[in-house]
Description:
The protein has about 90 residues and is an alpha+beta fold. It has one domain: Fe-S cluster assembly (FSCA) (GMP Synthetase, Chain A, domain 3, 2-Layer Sandwich), CATH 3.30.300. It is built from two helices and five strands, in the order ββαββαβ. The strands form two sheets. The protein has a three-stranded mixed beta sheet. It has a two-stranded antiparallel sheet with strand order 1-2. The N terminus is likely disordered.
Amino acid sequence: xxxxxxxxxxxxxxxxxxxxxxxxxxxxxxxxxxxxxxxxxxxxxxxxxxxxxxxxxxxxxxxxxxxxxxxxxxxxxxxxxxxxxxxxxxxxxx
Length: 94
């Protein structure tokens, strides 16, 4: 589903509490590993096509291996919790 907002097409977001809760629970499980290195992660949104958008904060926002952590740690944990998820992407702004 697409929504037009201010003449721009944007994808609508998932608001299903069960899905959001499962994703948040997966992030909570992986968060201590990020915290150990001075980082953290926040759920931004889940798009209608099941792309999970997260924001890496602290040391994770500038770490040179953050993409490896995102794909091999965070994405795996989220997909284990919610198999319908297609990918997890970082939307951190510098």
